[in-house]
Amino acid sequence: MAEFTMDLNDEQKEVRDWLHGFAADVIRPAAAEWDEREETPWPVIQEAAKLGIYSLDFYAQQFFDPSGLGIPMAMEELFWGDAGIALSIVGTGLAAVGVLANGTEEQIGTWIPQMYGDVNDVKVAAFCSSEPDAGSDVAAMRTRAVYDEAKDEWVLNGTKTWATNGGIANVHVVVASVDPALGSKGHASFIVPPNTPGLSQGQKFKKHGIRASHTAEVVLENVRIPGSCLLGGKDKLDERLARSREKAQKGGERVKNAAMATFEASRPAVGAMAVGTARAAYEEALEYAKTREQFGRPIIDNQGVAFQLADMRTSIDAARLLVWRASWMATTGKKFENAEGSMSKLFASETAKKVTAQAVQILGGNGFTREYPVERMHRDAAIYTIFEGTSEIQRLVIARTLSGMPIR
Ligand SMILES: Cc1cc2nc3c(=O)[nH]c(=O)nc-3n(C[C@H](O)[C@H](O)[C@H](O)COP(=O)(O)OP(=O)(O)OC[C@H]3O[C@@H](n4cnc5c(N)ncnc54)[C@H](O)[C@@H]3O)c2cc1C
């Protein structure tokens, strides 16, 4: 088992520098344009695909890096470039992880390549869990999956919302209830293959930030998919449901929710995205403070400004430490006994919100305009305290874990 280290090895440094180069040379110069267009930046994704950055191989390599630092390091660099474009690049990876975590080898081999497409015809994938009435309260999910035994098909009905790449994805991973009486333990994940009749895009959202990332409703009307599209297969689902029913009958014994455990492990990755945005805004603010002069001296010559920068950098480094610790724990199979995954996401996302607001302040009037990137970074940072579990939900998870009490 890899010991926790903050020293990246030579190979990791090489990958980091390569990603930083892509973020600086390709992502950052395109950021303002795609933010204004509010569209998926296909040419940038294609460029990433050409270099091998948009590919399962690259994602898997970072995911299986034994030190646990591969994914956070990659996320930080890409999101340092621009959060909206970076989410368009890594959004498919989030859906792919859903298949990697729950799918059979055959499902992984069949569907993940179709999520990415190829260099000449890049595709994206979507992970659809949230619904209009089931955001933080995942158990309230209404989308139903009913098994048609005669045809060995599943029939999906419902409306998903806030799906990154929803409706434009080649492959959609959809979470649906197969047994509503079991709440979230009655959920299962399904692949909806390309061009399946009945799946359509609903409203596309106009957003406050990460506007280069497509976010939309996904409507499922009598969507029929082959039995083989149930991730993990029917036998495994039946076994899991039987266990949950038995435990429920025994009287409310708490069953570890697999989805919650997966979220706990994926949260450091979102924390790393937030660190990337925070670092980008801090660097802009530091540079500006050194060059902008008022009262005959650079504004950084005032403690009021310099101390803010000191606090910003301290928080960013602290956030990165929490993210790396949680990611190392997840990779090496250490149990999150104190909800360390949630801690990392909570602290890093709140840091990004605060640091980007401070950066706007340090740039003064310029920080409030779209001439300078901190304005966009500040808008983008707001997402981190919302998706993959809001800050309040992270606090709930941490408090419950620490206390063992069913805190509401
Ligand atoms: C840009 C974007 C992209 C997204 N991408 C995806 C995606 O790809 N796939 C997907 O499935 N989902 C996605 N989401 C959905 C996201 O995960 C949800 O928005 C999030 O989980 C919060 O749900 P909600 O918006 O319904 O807020 P709500 O759950 O309605 O929460 C509203 C407020 O109430 C608070 N609150 C709720 N319950 C409690 C409680 N028990 N205690 C204290 N406070 C509470 C929340 O913290 C929040 O402040 C995305 C969302 C956005 C905005």
UniProtKB/TrEMBL annotation:
The protein, known as: Acyl-CoA dehydrogenase family protein
Record-level Gene Ontology MF annotations: acyl-CoA dehydrogenase activity; flavin adenine dinucleotide binding
UniProt cofactor(s): FAD
Residue span, Acyl-CoA dehydrogenase/oxidase C-terminal domain: 258-402
Domain Acyl-CoA oxidase/dehydrogenase middle: 126-223
Organism the protein comes from: Streptomyces tabacisoli
Domain of life: Bacteria
InterPro entries: Acyl-CoA_DH_CS, Acyl-CoA_Oxase/DH_mid-dom, Acyl-CoA_Oxase/DH_mid-dom_sf, AcylCo_DH-like_C, AcylCo_DH/oxidase_C, AcylCoA_DH/ox_N, AcylCoA_DH/ox_N_sf, AcylCoA_DH/oxidase_NM_dom_sf
SUPFAM superfamilies associated with the record: Acyl-CoA dehydrogenase C-terminal domain-like, Acyl-CoA dehydrogenase NM domain-like
Acyl-CoA dehydrogenase/oxidase N-terminal domain segment(s): 9-115
A matching Pfam family: Acyl-CoA_dh_M
Lineage of source species: Bacteria, Bacillati, Actinomycetota, Actinomycetes, Kitasatosporales
Entry similarity comment: Belongs to the acyl-CoA dehydrogenase family.
Alphabetized UniProt keyword annotations: FAD, Flavoprotein, Oxidoreductase
